[in-house]
Batch of 2 targets.
Target 1
Amino acid sequence: MDNSSGVGVLDKAVLVLNALEAGPASLAQLVTATGLARPTAHRLAVALEHHRIVHRDTQGRFILGPRLAELAVAAGEDRLLAIAQPVLTQLRDLTGESAQLYRRQGDVRVCVAAAERSSGLRDTVPVGTALPMTAGSAAQILLAWEDPDRLHRGLRGAKFTAAGLASVRRRGWAQSVGEREAGVGSVSAPVRGNGGRVIGAISVSGPLERLSRSPGRVHAGPVTSAAERVSEAMRRGSQS
């Protein structure tokens, strides 16, 4: 199927954006992903950066820029958030713990939706909070299915290992015991979009005195089920 619009420069710019949808990319990685000539890929990425459609992370890699998020908010069409919010509420009610949805943005993960436990000791992560990609079960999920080069770069300074991420891929969920914050545990599972690509992580988190030193033993089932429901709804929406 020919995806050309007939406007060559626009089609090439979309190739760049499609490549960055998978995560941060150097210029060399953009060239490989898009098939564009290096000068063309660079010229387009820099032009998109000028309009804030593309941005750069702390390592100088190209990432999707803030203008895209602004346009999504303005259009009110962020399907993932709309689908996930009621699922997070159900997950909170089922587990009795705070539930969150995280997305990766460059070198951090951002809480984009949450359902907080209403009372008692809790782990509060306000929407908009940026957390490191080096600790926590959601970081493990968002990194575990990256390509090998990005995965190993992401392990620098991380509190988890390549072997740990291999276990995450095998079982389909991750747990954290005091990685991000002492006394806090969490369990996360992947939300997948088209082609099975991981586009987010659903989590529950709370104090270890409730979650124990093995939080996945209790919460892996409901967290994985919640993530699968969101993933299925995202797939159905893309086919309609």
Target 2
Amino acid sequence: MSVELRGITWEHERGYGSVAASARAYREVAPDVEVRWDQRSLQSFADQPLEELVRDYDLLVIDHPHIPFAAEEGLFARLDGSGHDDELALLAAQSVGSSHASYAHAGGQWGLATDAAAQVAAFRPDLLPEPPRDWPGVLALAAEGKVLWPYKPVDAFSSLITVAAGNGEDAMRTPGVFLSADALAESMHTLRALARAVPAECATWNPIQTADALSEGTRYCYAPLLFGYSNYSRPGFRAHRLRYVDIPASRRGVRGSLLGGAGIAVSSRSRHTAEAIAHAFWLASAEVQSGVYYDAGGQPGNAVAWDDDRTNAHSLDFFRGTRATLEGAYVRPRWSRYIELQNALSPLVTAALRDELTDDELRARLDAGVRATEGDR
């Protein structure tokens, strides 16, 4: 008797094409298991309540900041101790930076890193022979009207954290404090200068819209901070290919970029837990990640795929070109209500970049948000 597993992922070739093609390939591995994937928007990927999704789906592609809440509420099946501990140890060794560890919480493993990403930089190699490598170079190029940067709320929030961490202070590590006054002022000085130099519509753009704009026409040639999408580095995806590289260096070099990416989790409500867990481990394996998963548009979370000569040759060295940034990435706080905090605070950063809030007003409101979430430390 065959088993049907239902999965939910996000609406993009990277999110859906990768797992759908892998599901078809899985029939050769497990002929009695059929995996069917549905899609949701990128915004729903971040916002839709997990309590709803685990009732309807066996497999979920999720963002790692959801893990603490899901683990504490018993929404996901625990993957350690499920009969795959040798595979789990291998995947931990094959992690890109902290990607694997970001799906652990309270001593358990609740997801597997099938997609690795962080804020990186991108440029058009046909228009810009060599990108700027530090912030003075970025701002000089921006002053020429050649730079794009997405700073809609969640991306502005991410960029503030990235720049501050690169300068030497990790956000939300001191109780009751988002960033110190000096760290916030220094970071906002850089980001305000950047916001004033890029088109006004960037205040409403996400990384996909920015990469689309960067890959068309000849006016813009560089973006300093946006979550990487290897699809734009591949032949034929858009009119012009983008090359992704490490973020602009700050005092700590290319360390401190906010870690993103996605992972696969198994619903604790699944009637086919063993089969769903087996598929999740197969999907996260080095062979699948560097093979069918990448070929169908996926951005692997397994370091074997990031080291692979074939995937790098096909993507203008996307993986090797951004690896240092991923290895030194900043991991968001492991608070069960972190997503609520991020959603509440992100619009404040965009408002400040539009000069609707002073640095003092911004810092007071950011700190208040952190204090309100203090009990989740």
